[in-house]
Design goal:
By secondary structure, the protein is mostly beta strands. It has a domain at 37-109: Jelly Rolls, CATH 2.60.120. It has one helix spanning 106-109, and strands at 15-18, 21-27, 32-38, 43-47, 52-59, 62-66, 69-73, 78-81, 87-91, 95-102. The termini are far apart.
Length: 111
C-alpha cells in the first residue's frame, strides 16, 4: 500500500511567485503553505485577496504594511492578515518566511 501521508520537502520544486520570492508550495484541499526565501530589497506591491494569510518570519527582517499599519517582522513576530485586507511588504534583509493561506491558493497551484 502506497503511503500518501509523508512527503520529502526536498522533492518540492522551487517556484518564483514574484520577483525575488522563491517558494516551495504545499497545497491541501483547504490551505496553501508557502515556504519562501526572499532576497533583500524584494517587494510585493499593495494588493488584497480573498485568502486569510498568516505570515511567520523564520530568518531575517521583513517590513509589512496591513491596512496602513506598518510593522517590521522578525523571528518571533507574526501577522494574521484578514481576507481582503490591503497589504504590501519589502524584505529588509534576506528572509525565510512561512505563509499559510486559507482557502487554498488556486493561482499558486497553477504555477
Amino acid at each position: 500500500m502506497e503511503n500518501d501521508f509523508f512527503k520529502n520537502f526536498a522533492d518540492i520544486a522551487i517556484k518564483e511567485v514574484a520577483p525575488g520570492f522563491f517558494s516551495k508550495l504545499i497545497h491541501t484541499p483547504s490551505i496553501t503553505i508557502n515556504f519562501v526565501d526572499v532576497k533583500a530589497g524584494s517587494n510585493i506591491a499593495n494588493h488584497q485577496h480573498v485568502h486569510e494569510q498568516c505570515t511567520f518570519v523564520l530568518e531575517g527582517s521583513f517590513e509589512l504594511t496591513v491596512n496602513d499599519i506598518t510593522q517590521t517582522l522578525q523571528p518571533g513576530l507574526f501577522v494574521i492578515i484578514p481576507s481582503y485586507a490591503w497589504h504590501h511588504g519589502i524584505a529588509m534583509t534576506d528572509c525565510k518566511l512561512i505563509d499559510i493561506f486559507s482557502p487554498v491558493r488556486e493561482d499558486y497551484k497553477a504555477l
